[in-house]
Amino acid sequence: ERFLDITTSRKNNITTGQIYAEVIARERRGDYLGQCVQIVPHVTDEIKRRIREASEGVDVLIVEVGGTVGDIEGQPFLEAIRQMRLEEGVENTLFVHVALVLTLKATGEFKTKALQHSVNTLRALGIQPDIIVARSDKPIDQEARRKIALFGTISEKAVFSSHDVDCVYKVPVVLEKQGMGDYLVTRLALAEANPDWREWNHVLNLYDNAVFPVKIAVCGKYTKLADSYVSVKEALQHAGVNIGAHVEIDWVNTEEFENGSRSLETLHGYDGVLVPGGFGRRGTEGMIECIRFCRTNDIPFLGICFGLQLSIVEFARNVCGLAGANSTELNPETPHPVIDLMPEQRRVSCLGGTMRLGALTVKLIKDTLAHRLYGADEIRQRHRHRYEVNHTYWETLQKNGLVFSGFSPEGDRVEIIEYPVNRFFLATQFHPEYLSRPNRPDPAYLGFVKAAMERRKTLKAAEAVA
After folding, report:
1. pLDDT in tens, 232-290
2. Is residue 124 domain-shared with residue 268, that is, in the same domain?
3. Which of 27, 222, 311, 334 is the most buried (most CB within 10 A)?
4. Domain containing 144: what range?
5. Is the same domain home to 45 and 101?
């Protein structure tokens, strides 16, 4: 979505669980008329059906079969695409195999043996790659390219290097310079076109010239793996490069605030703090303390989804005087359930796929920070939650200075909160990072990074005077 600036739907994400659930449901309905249900053809047929469904209305469908070749989980998917080549024709299908090429640090030599074994495993499953993309830390040399082509049984022109770059958005340019675009057009007999790279190169220029350092702390519970918050990371970068800021992100595990291994005072070292989405109790008291510290020290703050809910909890406890206030997700027995399960969720017994999910309209209140940021009365944003701000506490929260600046169209659900006493304190129930693009950053993220940048400039100016 970020690379192509498109919006995908749930049909573009095919999982093993979806496939097996559908096959079992069909068997229970009697669709198979008592047949013995098997991986082939029943599971593979369902995979193919879903791939074809996703291809409706497009010229070229890119299908990524995740995982590692040879893993048992991926075999039904590989069998399905093997069959699709037979059914759709060689001229209408193309297999691209992305494989790791290691480099010996001592000698700088490329080692392609792992890639060769990967290709051999694919062949054993009936798939011959048409293109091999060598994933490496540096551009592969001609000798490695020749060896990959020889043992991969493809032309050297069909071997491409996808090596490390300082910005992921440079990868398409790297592949284009090697001729991948022309090769794909010829191989798939597509209409030739002169690609216009001007906008893309403009984005790369922004990244190369974003030099003003802005330090952001992302305080959450899944921080050991940065990819857990990859959309948050990208949205921060999008916002930064569009105002000339180089955003440095520190991933802070809020459990460290709880066990005392990290002091809240360390947050003074950041220009802004973001609390992202999450579920469950672990680390939440640390997040709440983090939010309190930002609010009382006027550190630019952005809360996303769970971050909004915990901002409500913090404000209720420390400003409204509601001792023990909490979310019923975290403490079902809380005396002040300021965050509670949405009424329609109380009837839900199966949790899978039953959240308030997808793109929904948000109405913005005029003369608020949110309205100034988005410059519109209504916006569409993606959601993923089942808890909300409890109506019972709306009046108390607002009387104490919290502003509700965004609502659902019916006005019965809080979507955005802000604390106007601070230079920037905003939290959203939705996930604005999902609509952020390299050339079109989300306004909430843009406003947040701008505020963080201004804080850094103010501190630097004060240091210079001192």
Report:
1. 999 999 999 999 999 999 999 999 999 999 999 999 999 999 999 998 899 999 999 99
2. no
3. 311
4. 94-195
5. no
